[in-house]
Amino acid sequence: MAPLAAGCSVVLKSCDKAPLPPSLLTQHLLQAGVDEEALQLVQVQPSENKAVVESFLQHKYIKKVNFTGSTAVGRQIAAVAAQNLKPALLELGGKNVAVICKDADLQKAAANVLFSAWFHKGQVCMCVDSVYVHKDIYDAFLAVLKTEAVKMMENPDFALNQRDSAAAEKVQQLVTEAVEKGAKVVFGNRPNDASSNCSPIILTDMNDDMNLASEESFGPVFSVDKFHDMNAVIARINDQPHGLKASVWSSDVLAALETAKKLDFGGVHVNGSTIHDEPTVPHGAVKDSGSGRFNSVWGLEEFRYTKLITLSK
């Protein structure tokens, strides 16, 4: 919506896995009065995606690209865009974190972490992937987390499948590899078949040698680790390649604010979910999770440029 609001014409390429929503959106916008020359919908076969996108980026009338998707594809799009000197607005993958301080409300934090990690079966770019808990409350937090997880599993939504079999297979592979390298499943069932349904899982004893430590699963899986020193855990988190969303849980809001300022993420929420996006606040990321900002004036500015005109007699 931002480019249209900014006065730009838009070529909208739909996702081949979900072509109906952009089709309906385009239909309603045209019915509402958007000029047909200002909004064009393109739908192609999956095998044609790369060629079509490259043709867009090479076209002289395409001035900017806005892509939402994986970091791997975003990197390819950014490379082609750069070759053609076109700016790119990218919303890519995330490895989102929650930091649980020793003075946090354990009940509130645990319930929110579960929601943030397992919402829509983990298929939201803002879902929590890694939880870092202060060592003094680690055991207590894990116990509360398991209790809350049992309650949450009563939700019938968890019986739903992942978006497709390939997505489920990726989750299964990441979890299996992590377990083989020493990770422990402390809640849920380790996947062991070709089903598209992935059971929500909590892991502990993760290490950086596991692919799951740095790769987004896009499934209902997250890990819990303990930390001793806040500065050390901040450095560890910031050393990771992604930077979309983080949350900090503490009863000392000012101390949590200082921690939030030090975390290299596009958005940090104190005592709130990483799944937080609304029209009036900027949404975006840093590092391998993307560039640019969406929503409100920030989103509009992405599709405008400053032009200087001077007048003299």
UniProtKB/TrEMBL annotation:
Taxonomic superkingdom: Eukaryota
Active site: E91
All residue ranges annotated as the Aldehyde dehydrogenase domain in the record: 2-308
Oxidoreductase keyword on record: yes
Keywords noted in UniProt: Oxidoreductase
GO MF terms, alphabetically ordered: succinate-semialdehyde dehydrogenase (NAD+) activity
Keyword presence, Cell membrane: no
Record SUPFAM superfamilies: ALDH-like
GO biological processes: gamma-aminobutyric acid catabolic process
Family the UniProt entry places it in: Belongs to the aldehyde dehydrogenase family.
PANTHER family: CYTOPLASMIC ALDEHYDE DEHYDROGENASE (EUROFUNG), SUCCINATE-SEMIALDEHYDE DEHYDROGENASE, MITOCHONDRIAL
Protein name: Aldehyde dehydrogenase domain-containing protein
Native organism: Metschnikowia pulcherrima
Organism placement in taxonomy: Eukaryota, Fungi, Dikarya, Ascomycota, Saccharomycotina
